[in-house]
Amino acid sequence: xxxxxxxxxxxxxxIFLTVSLAFEPITTxxxxxxxxxxxxxxxxxxxxxxxxxxxxxxxWFIPNFTGLRSTLQDNLHGQHLVVDTVAKxxxxxxxNKNPSKALVLSFHGWTGGGKNFxxxxxxxxxxVKGMQSRHVHLFVATLHFPHKDKVETYKDQLRExxxxxxxxxxxxxxxxxxxxxxxxxxxxxxxxxxxxxTEINGVDYRKTxxxxxxxxxxxxxxxKTYQYWQEGRKREEISLKEMxxxxxxxxFNEKGGLWHSSLIExxxxxxxxxxxxxxxxxxxxxxxxDLKAKGHTVTEDVVTKVADELQYFPERExxxxxxxxxxxxxxxDLIMEEVSxxxxxxxx
Length: 348
Fold this sequence. Notes:
Elements: H1 2-20, H2 28-52, H3 65-75, H4 80-95, E1 103-108, H5 115-124, E2 136-140, H6 141-144, H7 151-168, E3 173-177, H8 191-194, E4 209-214, H9 218-230, H10 240-253, H11 262-265, E5 271-274, H12 280-293, H13 300-308, E6 312-313, E7 320-321, H14 328-347
Parallel strand pairs: 1-4, 1-5, 2-3, 3-4
Antiparallel strand pairs: 6-7
């Protein structure tokens, strides 16, 4: 009720200020006095509003670079190439008061490797409300852009959405999930906003962050990781540089949102980040995290039971989880329900 009244007062003062400044010269002195008073009241009201309702200011946009790095180090398993690269890229971009362009991160790898998790952690360590912030925008290809024959309509909608939200908050984050299912050519509509322009029609897009999530190049990433294992080399020896070319070729040539995209041709994607396939040991760490988060006692027996519920490949080695850590939470619930039922039967 108080907030509603304040908002109404805000609009009344705004109208009154506009009318006052439009008076004839004979009343200019009065208008100036009223204008100064009204301006002060408006400033105070705006400050009050932003303490209650999310705004794009330092009450709601609070970058925590240390928190981002530590969260990724503690909770993202088996992805040594992701932690350092993401932490440095985000920190470098946000701390730069005058970046040359928007930050564009492209995450690649099979499902369950942590792409959505990392996007969530970036949002949570920049905005107080995380993914629920009105300045963080998630687009899911199959939900928001389901019809390939409506690409031109989607392009217009996307341009308006990016322009409007960046005007509202220069630090806006745009996340595109299921890039491999995005209609071909759609993402080219984004090109002007991530290119090296100081502004476009009065709007500066250089402080925004674009995150692209895709399964594209997942096969190539997995094959390279498996090759290291066959050669007896540690996966931690895999470098970002040797993965970069694999992802670049895969993204440009495989059907999907980045197929023959101008974003790649014009080198507008800042970093291609590979998410490696997760081994059983990594899945077990995810299981432990989920058990702790749900308040369960963590035992090796339970962890192993949950891990055994998942499927692995190649068929002979059973090395990598087919679903990464994506199905871990559901499997934990299933196993813990079975454990609970067993304990009840024993007590009887």
